[in-house]
Write a structure and sequence with these properties.
306 residues, mainly beta, 5-stranded antiparallel beta sheet, 20 strands
Length: 306
């Protein structure tokens, strides 16, 4: 009854891609974040409510961006891909992965000449590793990495070992280690490395390696989900040690009416290009007020009449 009387607020996420001279470790200038590169209206094979969580990779002289598409018909996230020749103009291609549970946060990476994806699969109560049968459009499960309800699992290879950072619903950030991509995985003795902290306990994008250091990014959900994104410089990472230092807030909303990122930003991926420029993909959102019945009818219409 409260929803019927007051309505509901729903976030509408969009994606922006831009070029930068260096890896992003300081607040991003507003001038770089103009109009979004990709929106729900660009998705043509399903009725999308929003797009979010972009990850970008380069393959055969093209750039591929994988991201969550929230399908109105199912109410679940699916994984879509867009393609670009130069990183500035993008064309949406298709949905490439769909499951009977929610998918998001599709970190795509290459290992030993094969392409892999580790999306968030919390609805399956497992962390699943997918392998490309045909890149970028066909994927199959290659391994069950671990069981449990983990948020936004984020992989990085460092010093010949694999490291997995993953949030949990208790506002914690866990750290795991393995000699092999498929596992077995063991939890780090310092894990959880963040405890009961909604401002730092959930990953917000790929871990970046520059020089001798790794940089990780965390969603800050203080006040509400999707508020802002901040970074951490990892100073120590070994089988026994973990130490990092917080950097400034990297991304946040503008509070400007009708801005596509008015109410917050929560994700970033970065790709070093051949010309030493960086290609950066971010997302942002604004809350839209819906009449609950109208919102529900829109979902039903998408399910039965699309």
């Amino acid at each position: 009854m409260n929803l019927l009387r007051k309505g509901m607020m729903a976030p509408i996420w969009s994606i922006m891609v831009f070029s930068a001279e260096d890896m992003i470790a300081t607040p991003i200038e507003d001038r770089l974040l103009g109009q979004p590169t990709l929106q729900a209206s660009d998705i043509h094979d399903v009725q999308a409510e929003f797009v979010a969580d972009p990850f970008i990779v380069e393959h055969n002289s093209q750039v591929y961006m994988f991201f969550e598409v929230l399908n109105k018909a199912s109410g679940r996230g699916e994984i879509g891909v867009a393609i670009s020749v130069d990183g500035s103009k993008w064309s949406y291609d298709r949905i490439v992965l769909r499951e009977p549970f929610h998918l998001s946060y599709p970190q795509v990476f290459k290992d030993q000449d094969e392409w892999f994806m580790i999306p968030e699969t919390i609805g399956a109560n497992r962390v699943l590793l997918y392998k490309a049968v045909e890149f970028p459009s066909q994927w199959t499960i290659a391994a069950e990495m671990m069981t449990g309800r983990y948020l936004d699992p984020t992989l990085v290879k460092h010093n010949d070992k694999w490291w997995l950072f993953a949030g949990s619903e208790g506002k914690n950030l866990h750290l795991f280690c393995s000699d092999h991509l498929e596992g077995p995985w063991k939890e780090h003795p310092r894990s959880p490395i963040v405890t009961n902290d909604i401002s730092a306990g959930r990953p917000g994008g790929r871990i970046i390696s520059v020089g001798d250091y790794l940089y990780r990014y965390s969603q800050d959900g203080t006040d509400y989900y999707g508020r802002s994104l901040k970074g951490y410089k990892i100073n120590k990472l070994s089988e026994l040690e973990y130490e990092d230092e917080e950097m400034p807030v990297i991304l946040k909303g503008t509070d400007q009416e009708n801005d596509w990122r008015r109410d917050g930003m929560h994700h970033m991926d970065q790709l070093r290009m051949n010309n030493n420029q960086w290609l950066v993909a971010v997302d942002g959102h604004r809350f839209v007020k819906w009449n609950y019945i109208a919102w529900k009818m829109d979902r039903i219409k998408a399910k039965y009449f699309s």
